[in-house]
Specification:
Blueprint lengths: L2 H5 L20 H15 L4 E5 L6 H10 L5 E6 L6 H11 L10 H17 L3 E6 L7 H12 L1 E2 L2 E2 L2 E6 L1 H7 L5 H6 E6 L5 H14 L6 E2 L1 H11 L3 H17 L4 E2 L1 H11 L11 H11 L1 H11 L7 H4 L6 E7 L3 E5 L8 E6 L3 E8 L2 E6 L2 E6 L3 E7 L9
Parallel strand pairs: 1-6, 1-7, 2-3, 3-6, 8-9
Antiparallel strand pairs: 4-5, 10-13, 10-16, 11-12, 13-14, 14-15
Helix pairs in contact: 2-3, 4-5, 10-11, 10-12, 11-12
The structure holds adenosine-5'-triphosphate (ATP) and magnesium ion.
The site of adenosine-5'-triphosphate (ATP) has 20 residues, from helix 3 and helix 11.
């Protein structure tokens, strides 16, 4: 545990940037977003969409929603949606606990899903599919999802779909090929950054949640936090964590504008323009300048955005990259490409060491077998290397 946590008497890091439902703060925008999801529970509508800039809380909001669902709802949650229709159907079946036969055609997979959904309807259950980072969905796969959402018996929907994504998602949905899908969307909620008064409540909520509501933060410090983050929740977390560390180094139990400025400087933040916040370039800066923070986030929730393993994990550095196999079976191939021969078949839960990457594939090692697997099918994690004897240099 970092020592600033003990210094302030926290039980936990109050500004961890992983989407932890225990720390969920019900701001007015998050409340509205949740309400628009809950609306799906009451209705037979096909699609709900939530869009927002990075770090506005899409993932944590859906996690909150899922944590409150009644037992009568089953769902599949897909976080690596750069999938072909076949891969998407396979991922859905697997998430519902059904093993599809190898090399099944798209139609076969679709009909297996349909059978499963009819079965659930008979049991009186609702089924949701949630696709996070849906801006990465190929148009073709979106269109297949629409066909899936068309399924009904006795005028009752068999499945409802929630898409979450960055603003590109909304632009994608405007494409003429997706006109029919667009017509099926009844709710589009746009998550935004917090206003200043809610930002202050948010900070105090998280401090109290972590076990110390007595940290004093000056008014000037709040002004600076707001001007550096524009009210973006992930950026607020990053600034606050650094500001607390900065106070700790000075043996101070309060946060003033100096600590915030030091935090902003060390993260490479620039003051947000008063007009409109442009988070994305800031975020890129943040990712590069604060890998330490970055990888906690990527570690659990965003493996697709990781830096190429070859670059982030130079040999002899103390961090190693691992991947856990997501699907039931995963072919490991001789080189990066579907036509390359299979050298080994991995099973769900197998842990491989990631040693490189190329064109959407990872070069991995499993029990001394080397090969390539598609990136989508690994959940990436990072670990401190303890013994370096396996270094092959
Ligand atoms: N309502 C909230 N309550 C508590 N923490 C929040 C809330 N919204 C966002 N956060 C914090 O901000 C971080 C970023 O949120 P989240 O990962 O959900 O954003 P996102 O919109 O999914 O971003 P991305 O587009 O990059 O995936 C969360 O990990 C969490 O720490
Ligand atoms: Mg997210």
């Amino acid at each position: 545990m970092s020592s600033f946590i003990e210094f302030f008497g926290f039980r936990d890091n109050p500004f961890n940037i992983t989407p932890d439902v225990d720390f969920f703060f019900m701001s007015s925008v998050h409340q509205e977003a949740l309400a628009s999801l809950e609306y799906l529970l009451e209705t037979e509508e096909g699609f709900a969409v939530i869009v927002g800039e990075p770090g506005t809380g899409k993932t944590i909001t859906i996690k909150k929603f899922l944590s409150q669902l009644p037992d009568s709802v089953e769902y599949a949650y897909i976080l690596f949606p750069n999938l072909s229709p076949e891969e998407m159907f396979t991922a859905l079946l697997e998430d519902f606990g059904i093993e599809p036969p190898e090399n099944a055609t798209k139609n076969r997979l679709f009909s297996m899903l349909k059978d499963f959904l009819i079965e659930k309807k008979k049991e009186g259950k609702k089924v949701f599919v949630i696709i996070d980072e849906a801006q990465n969905l190929p148009v073709e796969t979106l269109e297949e999802l629409r066909l899936l959402s068309n399924l009904e018996t006795d005028k009752e929907k068999l499945i409802q779909i929630i898409l979450l994504g960055q603003p590109e998602l909304e632009r994608k949905l405007e494409l003429p090929q997706l006109r029919q899908l667009r017509q099926r969307i009844t709710v589009i909620y746009r998550l935004s950054n917090l206003k200043k008064d809610e930002m202050i409540d948010y900070i105090n909520y998280r401090l109290a949640k972590a076990g110390n509501s007595a940290v004093r933060i000056s008014k000037k410090a709040y002004d600076r936090i707001f001007s550096l983050t524009g009210g973006n929740l992930r950026l607020i977390n990053q600034i606050m964590e650094r500001a607390l560390m900065s106070a700790f180094v000075k043996n101070k139990h309060s946060i003033g504008s100096e600590e915030v400025d030091e935090a902003g400087e060390s993260l490479g933040f620039k003051t947000q323009s008063r007009k409109k916040l442009i988070i994305f370039p800031v975020l890129i800066l943040v990712i590069f300048s604060a890998l330490g923070f970055g990888y906690y986030y990527f570690y659990q929730f965003n493996p697709k955005k990781t830096q190429p393993a070859d670059k982030t994990v130079p040999a002899k550095k103390a961090v190693e990259t691992y991947g856990t196999v997501i699907p039931a079976k995963l072919n490991m191939r001789k080189s990066a490409g579907r036509d390359s021969p299979v050298v080994y078949v991995l099973k769900k839960g197998d842990r491989v060491k990631i040693e490189g990457e190329k064109d959407g594939w990872y070069r991995v090692r499993f029990k001394n077998i080397e090969g390539w697997v598609k990136k989508e099918f690994l959940e990436v994690s990072y670990e401190k290397g303890t013994d370096r004897t396996d270094s092959r240099e």
